[in-house]
Amino acid sequence: MKNAFDLTGQRALITGGGTGLGLGMAKCLVACGAEVVLVGRRENALQEAVEGIGERASYRVCDVTELERIPALVEGVETEIGPVDTLINNAGVHLKKDASEISDTAFQNVMQTHVNAGFALSREFGKRMMERGTGNIIFTASMASLFGIPLVAAYSAAKTAHLGLVRALAADFSPRGVRINAIAPGWIHSEMMHKALDADPKRKEKILTRTPLGVFGDPEDIGWAAAYLASPAAKFITGVCLPVDGGASVGF
């Protein structure tokens, strides 16, 4: 049988691709044969990531919250590099604060990054994918998409919105050949996670005790899931959210 996990000849664009989960996904997709374009705000981080990955990686500096820049980003990438087969909406910001203390501006900043930018990118790449009759869009969801977590109301609202977008976009785009899915990472070793947990040992202990595997995950755990969803092996999967969480979403 042909290797259904082979991504040779495919291109993926990953927002927030210079560090953390985005970088882990990029490495795994490249290992499966894909080319990757990393998008982010910090050129130094993007350069370092591309140098570490090798010749099948490139980058574009873009703040995706500036929605007016997205059409030009999409046009530039597809003209200069080639058609994008997989879009991974991974760019994100975290806000740890009691809900009663979150300002309207702070709430909207989180929504702008996760939801508005993710939708705009999906719309622009989705148009092109549907014209070609094939493509994949993957959202990085969260455990906060699945259950209530204290101190992350804005983040939870944004990540829950991702699931609604996955279902609605699948209904709109999949009849024209584009699959839409999400990955819900559990607690994964990353700069964002350690920033949230290292100064909060009780929260850290609570997470580990409700995670059946009893450990935090690695970025590559999310990367291999993304590679699967982007591959022909997942050709009959659309509109779903795949938890990659060590069992946290079913733990007690």
Automatic annotation (TrEMBL):
It holds the Pfam family adh_short_C2. SUPFAM superfamilies: NAD(P)-binding Rossmann-fold domains. Residues 10-190 form the Ketoreductase domain. InterPro entries: KR_dom (IPR057326), NAD(P)-bd_dom_sf (IPR036291), SDR_fam (IPR002347). This is SDR family oxidoreductase. The chain crosses the membrane at residues 137-158. The keyword Transmembrane helix applies. It comes from Pelagicoccus albus. Keywords: Membrane, Oxidoreductase, Transmembrane, Transmembrane helix. Belongs to the short-chain dehydrogenases/reductases (SDR) family. It comes from the Bacteria. One of its GO terms (molecular function) is oxidoreductase activity. The keyword Transport does not apply.
